Structures are given as structure tokens and as C-alpha cells.
Amino acid sequence: MTGAGADQGDGGHGPTGLEVRRATDDEVPAICDMLARAFDDDPVACYIMPTDRRRPAMLRAFFSMLVRRDHFLDFGGVFTTEGHRGAALWGPPGKPRLSGIRGLLALVPLAPRVAGPTLPRALRLLGRLDALHPTEAHWYLSTIGTDPDQQGRGVGSALMAPGLERCDAEGVRAYLESSKEANLPFYRRFGFEVTSEIVTEGGPTIWQMWREPQPPD
What we know:
This protein is of the alpha+beta class. Helices cover 35% and strands 19% of the residues.
């Protein structure tokens, strides 16, 4: 999705012994299954995919397309844990994004129901997000999600660490879009600040968040 999701209230720097590593190609199905569960109640997902029964399969198909077609693996931007408790998808500076209208049109063949009455509003929302995406060089945290039964255990905090360490080492900014207001304090703990609030009539509110690189301690 175009938003980022995290486990609300996730504290600390990750559970003891939790290893975060780059994902491999054969892990993509398990990661997509987990992300479908994590984003099942996401406001943007519910807005674009309003049918509860079909949403899980549609989300699995979308995340699989996002990881493979948008080449997050190729750029070393997919992080996960043992047991796939969570995952984070990062896009590097200058990389074309599978978002906005491109993202929606790529999703339509996988989920025909999207092309029904929700298509016009989905096009407006995703097109607006794409138009407002920052043009400055940055790492884009496209997606971060934790399996619902693992939330509150520090998984999200652990997943954030390697991507932000890379941003700081390279002196590059980071950007994300949050579709849940409850997650804003979580992102702020890592140096992200809200730069804009996107309000849609009858739809979700999305918060754009920006992070400047931080010097080492």
C-alpha cells in the first residue's frame, strides 16, 4: 500500500534476540501473507478494497506485486525477522515508485473488484498521494507491518533500525506516509515529523512524515 503501518504502542528497541535481516526471494509468499494480515484494517486498504471477504487475497496479491515488480528485493530494501513476524519495504533515492495511478492500474488485473464503484475515488486518492510525494532525494519507507499477534513486542522498532542506520550512514533523508494517527508517536520516536496532513472527503486521513539524517552518537 501507499501507507506505512506499524504496531501501535511498540516500545523499546526490539525483543531480546530478535534478528532483523534482508529477506530472500523464497520468503516473499510468507512475508506477503503476514503483511495482508497486518494491513487488513488499514484505512487506505479498507477504502480501496472495501469488501472484507476479498481484501486478504487482494492484499496478498498487491504486496507480492510490490515486492517483485517494484524490485524492492533487488535494491536490498526488504527486511524481515525469523518467523516473518514483520517486514519493512524501503525504496532507494531516485527509484521509480509503484504508487499513485501506476500502482492502482497494476493492482486492477489482480483484483477486479477494485475496478468497480470504488475505482474513481481510489484513483483520486492515489493520484493525489503520488503528486504530493517529495522530490528531494530520500529513502522511502513504503511499507512496515507487524503480524497482529506479534504487535507490542518491539518487532516494529527492530525493523526500523537497519533502514534508518543506512539513511544516517549515507546522510540521506527518509520519508513515509502513515494512514493511522495512533502510529505517529511511534514514528516520531525515530526522528520522523509530520510535514503535511492529507484529508480526503469520506476517506482516510494520511500523514506525510519526513526525517532528516541523524549524526552518530
